[in-house]
Design brief:
Layout: H1 2-6, E1 12-15, H2 32-40, E2 44-47, H3 60-77, E3 85-87, H4 95-102, E4 107-109, E5 128-129, H5 137-150, E6 156-157, H6 172-184, H7 192-198
Parallel strand pairs: 1-2, 3-4, 5-6
Helix pairs in contact: 5-6
């Protein structure tokens, strides 16, 4: 993503193999070549369920099947990928599925907003929407101010970046504002995998 490259920022892209290259109803999902390019440029490729089914809608065996299929698909694109982290499709998890995922992935991300600080649940990481319908530049600044005051970990999530974004995306202007806000405060922008390593996890 050119905007991230301009800031030397790295991101985590959670991919559902079954959606690659397809029209979502709001945006065209990234194609296989784009996913490989992102990986080779230092971004993290991470796991969803293969068919983007909610973790709460399938049993333990179904979750194993979905995540294993997705991992095989991604490694088939480039075997050097390290598929270490997971995000719950639609942000929906459960205690049972969380416990199951903890045996396979280093972390699992939800969509409950806030700063990860103190005792952190690695299998329901908090994340804040970087989505124009949910946040503006002032709220982005407040989130970074809270981060600086608490020495925590702030994760932003979204889907598309476009001049006219979907209901789940943001404009380049808002993304640049967030990247500038991080830079002004000396906050490194890194992948989930690198953040975990930086924390010694």
């Amino acid at each position: 993503m050119p905007v991230l490259d301009q800031y030397d920022a790295k991101a985590t892209f959670y991919v559902s193999g079954g959606e690659v290259g397809k029209w979502s109803g709001h945006w065209r999902c990234a194609g296989a070549d784009t996913i490989v390019e992102l990986h080779r440029r230092g971004h993290e490729i991470a796991c969803h369920t293969f068919s983007h089914v909610r973790a709460t809608d399938i049993d333990a065996a179904g979750l194993v099947g979905e995540t294993d299929r997705n991992r095989r698909y991604l490694l088939g694109l480039d075997s050097s990928m390290r598929i270490e982290n997971f995000a719950y499709p639609y942000g929906l998890g459960s205690v049972r599925r969380k416990t199951q995922l903890a045996g396979v992935f280093r972390s699992s991300r939800g969509i409950i907003p806030g700063i990860n600080r103190g005792t952190v649940d690695l299998h329901y990481l908090r994340s804040t929407p970087l989505i124009n319908r949910h946040i503006d530049s002032e709220a982005v600044d407040r989130a970074f101010d809270e981060l600086a005051a608490t020495n925590g970990w702030l994760i932003f999530y979204g889907h598309d970046v476009a001049a006219e974004p979907s209901p789940y995306g943001c404009t380049p202007k808002l993304l640049r504002h967030a990247l500038d806000a991080a830079g002004r405060r000396g906050v490194p922008v890194m992948t989930v995998a690198d953040a975990l390593r930086a924390c010694g996890l």
